[in-house]
Design a protein that fits this description.
Length: about 150
């Protein structure tokens, strides 16, 4: 979605952190960059690491899509992702974005090779959405966010 920016928790480790706009293989900025394939993916490096997208104004979402490698070359490095949303107020405060306060879990989704689409049971209005990695070695190609009811890729 327009106006989105990505972030990462300290749990991902320095090797996984790159300045926004600078795409390096397996860095958190790759999760919502619109590019597919292994070279445009995120590996957390630590179980429980989070990466997500923030919005300057509330965004209404109907579901999300995930994939290990949308290009279809790799089927390894799968796992699950806990999906959490922040509904309070727009923020760029790192301690809020990486903390536990104010986040609501929507449950876990599987990370499949090509793509998995997960419709929310109802629309959610959020200022941020993040995923928490079940294991250090999973690889998320893209976190696709959807705003249209009844639409799936």
């Amino acid at each position: 979605p327009s106006g989105a920016s990505s972030g990462v928790s300290p749990a991902a480790g320095a090797a996984g952190v790159a300045p926004w706009g600078w795409n390096k293989i397996h860095c958190y900025g790759n999760i919502n960059d619109g590019s597919f394939g292994n070279s445009h993916s995120w590996i957390p490096g630590v179980a429980g690491a989070v990466a997500g997208v923030t919005f300057p104004t509330p965004m209404t979402l109907t579901g999300l899509g995930t994939s290990r490698d949308r290009a279809g070359h790799y089927g390894d490095r799968t796992g699950s992702l806990e999906v959490e949303v922040y509904t309070s107020v727009a923020t760029t405060d790192y301690s809020v974005l990486t903390g536990t306060g104010g986040w609501v879990s929507l449950g876990s989704v599987g990370l499949e090779m090509y793509a998995g689409y997960y419709a929310f049971s109802q629309t959610v209005e959020v200022y941020a959405i993040r995923v928490k990695a079940s294991n250090a070695g999973l690889c998320l190609d893209e976190l696709e966010l959807y705003q249209y009811p009844g639409w799936a890729p």
